[in-house]
Write a structure and sequence with these properties.
Distance between the termini: 28 Å
CATH superfamily: TonB-dependent receptor, beta-barrel domain
Pfam family, one: TonB_dep_Rec_b-barrel
Family: Belongs to the TonB-dependent receptor family.
Helix content: under 10%
CATH class: Mainly Beta
Number of strands: 41
CATH topology: Maltoporin, Chain A
Radius of gyration: 25 Å
Largest sheet: 22 strands, antiparallel, barrel
Strand content: over 45%
Membrane topology: Multi-pass membrane protein
Protein name: Iron complex outermembrane receptor protein
Domain TonB-dependent receptor-like beta-barrel: 256-685
Oligomer: single chain
Length: 718
């Protein structure tokens, strides 16, 4: 195979520009499960790698640092560092339950993470993060109607190398990443070991003295590691073992009561982000372990790839969801739970090597998950446990897929693919005691779907490609097992999406600039929605007839002069629920509802935007370096991301509309060819504090973003 298959895949997301060059480098991506020039792939894909990835991750953020850093991508959480929720082109799921189905798949080292708590594994020592927009059901499957966040670890190397990267910042924030890689037996056996440690002291002081609760909030200690061993006995066979784990001890999401000024989406006068007033604790713990085995065999006409994955986690999280103390909230309640997801997956695929103008891929996929858990509501004013619910969730998926690309002429390439998936899900809900007594329920759903896509890529010139793509996506039937305040589970039938997109990808001005432009339209039938919260504190699934979305995405990268690199990107996304009858409960008088209501007082969703779907996302970076001496450089780097106004819930209310948010960073430092680098940085330069999520009981409880962080960084690479 020349170089190892994993080494070839490792080229994906190569650094966009060489600092010593006045031209941009071509970007290689693996969006089609094989390395290819990004410009020649008929998919809207953005790759983040190298220095940009390091900068965005420097202040101790979890995987949500990706929000708004590529067109059409949003990420948020009401669970803190253990449960990211992703949205692409407005499609996502705001449900907070452990078994919630998510239409954006996170694929880590070719293994699809289904459970949201497994999607939270830290991003460190990776080659690239690729965001694939639009349905990706043909090659990736496993619930990808919105798209894929694809993360590929840095792979073992044939030469001894590594790095150590340490940052220290405000609130005693420490972020350390280190890796070492090299051969054990030259050309036969090599390894890579990497570690990531993030910690921060509690920095939000609890002002509650009535209950003498001296617990402060928002600190964490998050430790993760990965070890990879690659065995290449001959030029035709590669075997890569990946073992990884994580241990988190920190705070759950901090909910703050009465922080939104009624009738507006402003914070109340005198709001202090470093203070809270609560009578409960917010503990959160997670430990996880995973392993995967990649076997790649070059059989001559075809290459056979096997990917075996196993992931598990044990998670405990409890939050003071009323956000206050008895004197400031209508009722005082904590909720929490223990959950233990387990996932096993196996994929085998074949890809042709040399069939002239033909490229063929096909394979089989199997996925099995099992989760047990216990959830409870705990009333802090009396100390009585009002509900205890246990659950057992099972899910199984079988799939078969194939794709073909045919080079019709030197300029025109046509492609297409299909995948058939079948899903079985079941949930046992056991309420030992509660508001309405003991309960045992067993609920199951199943369904199958054939997803497909067709595409055409046309090279207008050697530097400009145009593409069109039509693709369908599928989200399996779902079950909502929250029976804390109800005597029945809810289900939703399968959701299907058809997407149309066209775009241009170009390299301009003798490779000094690139421009990618995509327009899209999608229609989702039987859109799965989760009515979360409201005055009754319930969560139930429902299907809307349709949800549509359309928009434009733009990405520009340029090196106008030597040592200066600028990037800019943005998207306009319009989403709309189309169903004249579907309705949900509102906040019950605690907020200013702007939604049309039906005769029962519920909000009609027809015409509403999807939740967490800002119309505008913009981002930009600028890097300028000044050579110092023979081998050094002083550099300036700044990055900015803008997220426009968005809606937190399915219904609309003045208080639950997120204000626009501009998040920027600045980094100034020195580096040299000997591998040394030092820098100072600021994150959230403008110190904008926004309500970025809420709980719609009746006390205007909200969640806010992180404040401004100052820090210093030292890095050594060898």
């Amino acid at each position: 195979m020349g170089m190892s298959a994993f080494g070839l895949v490792g080229l994906a997301g190569v650094v966009h520009a060489e600092e010593a060059s006045d031209k941009l480098q071509e970007i290689i991506v693996s969006a089609e499960r094989r390395p290819a020039l990004e410009r020649e792939v008929p998919i809207a894909v953005t790759s983040i790698s190298g220095e940009k990835l390091d900068v965005l991750n420097s202040s101790g953020m979890d995987i949500r640092f990706l929000a708004a850093r590529t067109p059409s991508l949003q990420a948020e959480s009401s669970f803190g560092r253990t449960y990211p929720r992703f949205y692409i082109r407005g499609l996502g799921n705001a449900d907070f339950d452990p078994n919630a189905s998510q239409p954006v798949s996170v694929v880590f080292d070719d293994v699809a993470m289904e459970n949201p708590m497994l999607k939270a594994f830290p991003v460190f020592d990776v080659g690239a993060v690729e965001v694939l927009r639009g349905p990706q059901g043909t090659l990736f499957g496993k619930n990808t109607p919105a798209g894929v966040v694809k993360i590929d670890s840095a792979k073992p190397t044939d030469t001894f190398s590594g790095f150590s990267d340490l940052t220290y910042g405000s609130y005693d924030t420490v972020n350390f990443t280190g890796a070492v890689s090299g051969p054990i037996v030259k050309n036969v056996l090599k390894y890579r070991a990497s570690v990531n440690m993030q910690r921060r002291n509690d920095w939000v002081q609890n002002q509650d003295i009535s209950t003498k609760n001296d617990t402060d909030f928002e600190g964490y200690r998050d430790l993760a590691g990965r070890f990879q061993l690659e065995y290449t006995p001959n030029e035709n066979l590669d075997i890569l073992l990946n073992v990884h784990g994580r241990e988190l001890d920190g705070s759950a999401r901090l909910f703050r009561a009465n922080i939104i000024k009624k009738g507006t989406n402003d914070l109340v006068d005198g709001f202090d982000i470093e203070k809270a007033n609560q009578d409960g604790a917010n503990p959160q713990k997670l430990n996880s372990f995973g392993s995967n085995l990649h076997v790649v065999y070059d059989a001559g006409p075809v290459t056979i790839t096997s990917v075996s994955g196993y992931e598990r986690a044990n998670v405990f999280s409890r939050g003071d969801i009323d956000g206050g103390v008895p004197s400031t909230v209508p009722f005082s309640v904590e909720t929490g739970g223990y959950n233990s997801p387990r996932e096993l997956s196996q994929e085998v695929r074949l890809a042709t090597n040399d069939l002239g103008p033909w490229l063929l891929q096909g394979g089989l996929y199997y996925f099995n998950s099992y989760m047990t858990g216990k959830d409870y509501d705990y009333v802090t004013s009396t100390g009585a446990i009002d509900d205890q619910v246990r659950h057992k969730d099972r899910s199984e998926t079988d799939g078969i897929f194939g794709s073909v690309k045919y080079k019709v002429t030197d300029a025109l390439t046509l492609g297409g693919g299909v995948r058939y998936s079948h899903d079985n899900k079941s949930v046992e809900s056991i309420r030992d005691f509660g508001y309405t007594g003991p309960l045992f329920l067993r609920t199951s759903v199943n369904g199958g779907n054939a997803s497909w896509d067709v595409s055409a890529d046309y090279a207008i010139t050697s530097d400009v490609n145009a593409f069109v793509r039509v693709a369908t996506g599928y989200l399996a039937p779902s079950i909502q097992d929250r029976v804390t305040f109800a005597n029945a589970t809810s289900t939703a039938k399968a959701e299907t999406t058809i997407s149309y997109e066209a775009g241009i990808k170009s390299s301009l001005f003798d490779k000094r600039a690139s421009l990618n432009l995509t327009g899209y339209y999608y229609d989702t039938s039987d859109m799965q929605l989760t009515a979360v919260g409201g005055a009754s504190n319930t969560a139930r699934l429902l299907n809307a007839d349709h949800a549509i979305g359309y928009g434009v995405e733009l990405e520009i990268e340029a090196k106008p002069i030597e040592h200066l690199l600028v990037t800019a990107g943005g998207s306009y996304n319009h989403t709309e629920i189309q169903d004249p009858t579907v309705s949900v409960a509102t906040c019950g008088g605690g907020c200013t509802v702007t939604n049309a209501l039906n005769a029962s007082g519920n909000a009609l969703l027809n015409g509403n935007p999807l939740p967490e779907a800002p119309k505008w996302i913009l981002n930009a970076t600028l890097r300028y370096g000044v050579p110092v001496g023979a081998d050094g450089e002083v550099f300036f780097y700044t990055d900015w991301a803008y997220r426009g106004e968005d809606n937190f819930f399915l219904y609309t209310a003045k208080e639950f509309t997120g204000k626009p948010f501009l998040d920027g960073g600045i980094r100034i430092g020195y580096k040299n060819d000997a591998g040394y680098e030092v820098a100072g940085f600021v994150r959230n330069v403008l110190d904008q504090i926004r309500v970025i999520g809420a709980i719609d009981f009746n006390n205007l409880t909200g969640m806010v973003n992180e404040p401004r962080i100052f820090g210093v960084q030292a890095k050594y690479s060898f």
